[in-house]
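From the shared-data thread, chain only:
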Amino acid sequence: MRKTAATAVKLARMNLSDLPAALLAERPHLFSAATVPIPAADLARMGEIIAAIEAVVALPAWDEHLGLAKVGAGGTVAGVFMGYDFHLTDAGPQLIEVNTNAGGGLLAALQARRADALAAFVAMFRTECGGRELKTVAIVDAQPATQYLYPEFLGFQRLFAEHGIQTVICDPGELMLCHGNLWHEETKIDLVYNRLTDFAFAEPAQAVLREAWRQGALVTPNPATHARYADKRNLIALTDDALLAEWGVDAATRATLLAGIPRTEAVTAERAEDFWQRRRQLFFKPAAGFGSRAAYRGDKLTKRVFEEILAGDYVAQAYAPPSVVNVAVDGGMTELKADVRNYVYRGVVQLVVTRLYQGQTTNFRTPGGGFAKVIET
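Structure, as tokens:
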């Protein structure tokens, strides 16, 4: 595997066996026994596409285009665990989407025995604090113990403890804002690791967290991070050559983006017939969606679902089929689809993993599927 981010802390001693066995047993399709080979050229190309996106996002024109002044306090932190998800195709890697708070990075690093990645993760959280010392982290999600990736929360708690960082795992409703600081009971929180899927903190349950962020509390990732990177409508601009040129993006960067991101369009009722006629070549996604929820392959659409798409806030992306991997399951070989995720911090790839699955989208319900280790070939 190619070199990843430099580490600034000692290597962790954690192993996957340190996580509660009973919780992992309840999630039998979290990890795949398969190891997936990826050519070095594809790994390098994914890095180039990521760098091109980061270059555009860094432009003042990008924030102006997104109207980020309306979002909140802004990007005071870079956002931990950016997930750049790709399909490997005959035309090269194709970026399917970008996710903030991409889950599973710690679990995948433990599975692959990547102590260097674990160390980089700890350094990442410390970097998010700027010049402040990181003493306490709150991992925040709705009813965290009920979440599918709850074992990962416990893993972070153990990892941070190895490095002298106290961790609380809590629901946002358990947080208090007092004198400009966030508290969990009697513990002052230095940094919130946000795992919520209410990306804009719009729901009443996130009121305290939203106000704390607006007042300058360190929350990573936050609404500005999501708006800047992960809203699916961003892919429309990233595949608009004329707009990119207007912003001064150089020809080489534009070529990388147009070759590496399937063309993405806003779905409108005015163009309903056009999209219906082209549906078999398209994949429809809600602009603010996550985890493949309410996302549809066009060749599987019914008229009823298409009407729901037209009434919603959707984008249509040129369909880039995933690569496939043969995996041994119950004494036979099964063909599974593969999504390739790059975990990225400040443009640097920390870890590359695959997620194997059957069906329309990744689901962690496929025998033989789940997170799979990657080897460079």
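Residues 16-232+336-376 form one domain.
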